[in-house]
Amino acid sequence: MVSVRHPLRSAVAVLESPMTAPPAAIRLSNGAEPAEIRRATVADAPAIHALINANLAEGHLLPRTAEDVTRRAARFLVVTVDDAVVGCAELAPLSRAVAEVRSLVVDESTRGRGFGSRIVEELNRWAVQEGFSTLCAFTHNAAHFVRLGFSIVPHQWLPEKIAMDCVGCPKFRQCAQYAMALPLRGRSLRTTPAGQRPYLAMPDSVAPIVPPQGRTIAS
Question: Where are the domains of the chain?
Answer without folding.
Answer: 24-211
